[in-house]
Every structure is written in C-alpha cells, then in structure tokens.
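Schema walk-through. Below, the input block comes first and the output block second. Nothing else is stored per chain. Lengths vary across the set, and this one has 232 residues.
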Amino acid sequence: MEKYDLLPDLLEGNHNHVEGLPQGYFDDVQEDQHPNLVSVCCSDSRIPQVEMWDIDEPGRVFTPSNIGNLVWEVDEKDRVVDSGILYPIHHTGTSAVAVVGHTGCGAVTAAYRVATGGERPSPRGVRNHVEMLVPMIEEALESEEVDADADEATVINQLVEYNVDYQAQFLHESDDIPEDVTVYGFVYDFQGVYGEENGRVYLVNLDGETDPEKIAEEVPEEFEVAVSSLLY
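--- output ---
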C-alpha cells in the first residue's frame, strides 16, 4: 500500500457521513455537552463504543478509551482517576460510568504473558501501559476467582472480567468520584463466551457488587440475560 492510499477512503467515508446526517443533527450540542454516560472501553477496533448502546445522536456518551480499559493514570507514582473520566463527571454533569472490557482482550493477554514469564511487548509506550496491568493480573492468578490451570483462552476471559471488576472497584472507592455517580462494569462479548448472542454486554459489577444474583435484583427481568459472570 502506498503512503496515502487510505486517504480517498477516509474522505469518501466522511463525505457519506455528512450526507447522511439529518438536518439539525448538532443543534442541541453546539455550545455545550451533557452526556449521561462515560463509557470507558478498550480501544480494540472490534468494539463499537457508541453503537453497543444503540445511540445515534451526538452528546450522549463520553468515550475515553485505551488498551485494557484502564481507568487510572499515574501522577508522581500515584494512581489517579483518568482525566477522561473526571472531566465529564465534574464539568458536564455526567452521572454514570461504564467500564467496558471485552472477551479475548489483547492487552489483558499481553499482561498475562508478561506475568507468566513471557516477553514484554514493544514499543515502549505499549510496554508501559501493559505493565500497569501486570500487578493486577498477578494478583488475579493467585486468587480463587481465576482458574490459573485452565487453557489460556479461558484464563484470559476470566482475567478480562477480573480486570473490569478491578477497574470498577477503583472508581467506586475513589474520593474523586461522587457517591451519587453510578459505576457499572460490563464485558462486551463478541466471541460467544458468555452466551450465544455476539455483541451483548454482560453486567458483572454494579457499584462494587459482583454477585450475579444480587445484581440481577436491580435489573429489569427482561434484561436478566445480560447478568452473568465467569468468576462467581
């Protein structure tokens, strides 16, 4: 592929995007934004960050993303809540955070392999980010929740859920997240790990609660299929 071969496709795609926008599409968000959800997703290209919620209008979802759906950044060696989460909560009135991992996560896989003696990934930026996950992965492998002796795919998906729980709990316990902000932890399943319906999100953590039976008590009956766990 030549250096700029992709450019015509990008411009044509944007042209089609513009042509397809209904009149007044941005009218309500010209001056400010008030998204009701911060959705922290893994930046994997297979995960439709907004479409998974069936939202087709601007200003509804704030979408910070990174490999491994980490919710913190490091400030002078201290973990602090990521700015992409804090900004909408403190400056746009957003009242809910969804931490969204996904089955077969590459970042979790890389951290697992480092934790079990494999090579550290490159380049440096990727390595540094993955290694922020490694202590959590090591903790998980020593816990009773994860079956460290299972096949790698099973372990990875258990670790994906463990990671979502860990990130959600970090937010739930942070002084920077107001008590009236709801924290959800989801796993997006596009590989049929939790069930047969690819693309469904599974609620695995609700404000720190991880017991599926207790979570199900808060979920409308018609959506209880979306409450599941590989760990509990």
